[in-house]
Amino acid sequence: MSVTDLLKEAGCDFKVYDHPPVFTVDQAKQHTSHLPGVHCKNLFLRNRKGKQHFLFVFQEDRQVNLKDLSDSLGTSGLSFASEERLYKYLKLKPGSVGPLGLIHDCKKHVTVYFDQQIVESEYSSFHPNINTQTIVIKTKDLLRFIESLGYTIHYI
């Protein structure tokens, strides 16, 4: 079942927009800046030992210092997870990271964090597991959907 089918089944309010492939926030802005809501940047990170994995969903313009983030969470040395780890846990390729990849993490290995600025916005936009589309979804529906998958969402 596709991610959009799962969202429909869950009663989520969303719309999908097609665009050329994008791999960075700057590239995405060229094609999606006119869309409503807060635009997201998603980071898939791991701790130093590679035993913990995290998905961070930030407002697209937020500057993120990995050392400060690591210190604030009390975890050892956060760094970007490899392409292999990204595929192993979320079944995603680089450039398509987003919270809907959590549908593939059946063992709930990934810990999820959302930027408080996103939670306060009526709509959020990000890739629906492919970097040639952007989904705009009611933020409350997105959070409800992620929780229905069995995740506890942490806020920063």
Tell me what you see in this structure.
The mean pLDDT is about 95. The protein has one domain (about 5-155): YbaK/aminoacyl-tRNA synthetase-associated domain (YbaK protein, Alpha-Beta Complex). It has helices spanning about 5-10, 25-30, 65-75, 85-90, 115-120, 140-150; strands spanning about 15-20, 40-45, 55-60, 80, 110-115, 125, 135-140, 155. It is built from 6 helices and 8 strands. Strands 1, 2, 3, 4, 5, 6, 7 and 8 form an 8-stranded mixed beta sheet that branches. The protein starts with a helix and ends with a strand. It is α/β, with parallel strands linked by helices and about 160 residues long.
Task: List its salient traits.
YbaK protein; alpha/beta; single chain; eight-stranded mixed β-sheet; 6 helices; 156 residues
Query: In percent, how much strand structure appears in the residues?
Result: 25-35%
Reported for the largest beta sheet, the result is: 8 strands, mixed
General shape: globular
Q: Roughly what is the average pLDDT, rounded to an integer?
A: 94
Number of E-type strands: 8
The number of helical runs is 6
What can be said about this structure in brief?
By secondary structure, this protein is α/β, with parallel strands linked by helices. Helix content is 29%, strand content 26%.
